[in-house]
Amino acid sequence: MGKSRKRKRRTHSVATEEEVEKVPHSLVIHRGHVGKSVVNLEFDLRRVMEPYTATNLKVSPKNILKDFVHIAGPLGVTHLLMFTQTEMATYLKVGRIPRGPTLTFKVKQYCLTKDVMSALKKPKSSGTQYKNPPLLVLNGFSANTLPMKLMTTMFQNLFPSINIQKVHLSGIKRCVLLNYDSESKTIDFRHYNIRSAPVGISRGVKKLIQTKVPNMSQLDDISDYVFRGGCGYGSESEGEEPGDSRITLPQDVPGRGNIKAQQSAIRLTELGPRMRLKLIKIEEGICTGEVLFHKYVKKTAKEIKEMKSKREEKRKLKEMRKKQQEENVKRKEREKAINKARSIEGQRKKQKMETPDDSNDTKDEVATGLSEVNDDDDDDAGWYRREVGKEPDPGKYQHNNSNLLFQV
């Protein structure tokens, strides 16, 4: 009897619909005319925001900002990332839908994913790591100012939060690092792949536990490979790992040698893209509203008060016009209903007037027949007078009307 094969049961947890609805969702788009490199940067950023983003979203030039804000509610989208480009620079706007705020960053430098991958000796991009959201790491966001607080809150809410008690290490395969430089007032954006590797073993053993078994055809015994670093390798180690990169695994992690309660080294491989951002402006709404912060423009208290009063007047005027428009719509609907009722009543009256009456029709037919008979008599007598030149004999052209029987 053949030996039964043991099947591996599914161990990873599947997120429910309620959990998916609670996590942040984003849209990454561009507005206006942008270059090809910015479009590629947009696609790379969509890749970073997976899986809770619209990766294959197609944006039409006819679409306006309100279109995306209106569809965001039914789709559960919480954040909008928008690239714009001018003659001076490229900008990235990050907004919270639907009420704001909106943070405008100047993209001082950027590098695409394909450029980062081409510069690496051993790139690590299998594609499976994009099935889980990345881990957010913030560094240097410690200043107690309004712009810093808003930036920290915006970035933290941009990615799903992690429950330390329930998190599975097998689901954390990527990380997004945001480093704030207090001297240059810039933010460095990096995107890494996370991989764990066992430590404390020689290079030969590492080769053995890998998926691809090394070629040992030239060796007499496996001990030659392990203890002598066979196949021409003289070094038993690929280099000492930093002490802070070594951790004791609290769970089993995918990968050979990554066992619970054993030490492993955390290795990061950059995936791209890279960006260097600088905060320029913070607006209260979605690209509109009161300016809470501006890097270059400073206004006095009087100017701020005037702007608030103008904005309030504009808001009141808009509400008044909206109310007036609603009243006009209701009035037109009432007039339409009245006109419809009048039209129906007129049609009913017309139908009553066009309904035939039998008695009246019979009387009209009798009168018509008699008049036709009299006309015929007059015509015959008149013809005789004209042709003969004298009066016809009495009774010659008189028809016997007694044969015409009419019952009225």
UniProtKB/TrEMBL annotation:
Q: Where is this region: Disordered?
A: 234-256, 307-408
What is this protein identified as? Answer: Suppressor of SWI4 1-like protein
Query: What GO cellular component entries does it have?
Result: preribosome, large subunit precursor
- Species in which this protein is naturally found: Acropora cervicornis
Residue ranges that the Swiss-Prot or TrEMBL entry lists as coiled coil: none
Q: Which InterPro entries match?
A: Brix, PPAN-like
Compositional bias ranges of the Basic and acidic residues kind:
307-366, 382-396
Brix domain spans which residues?
Answer: 24-288
Which Pfam families does the record match to this protein?
A: Brix
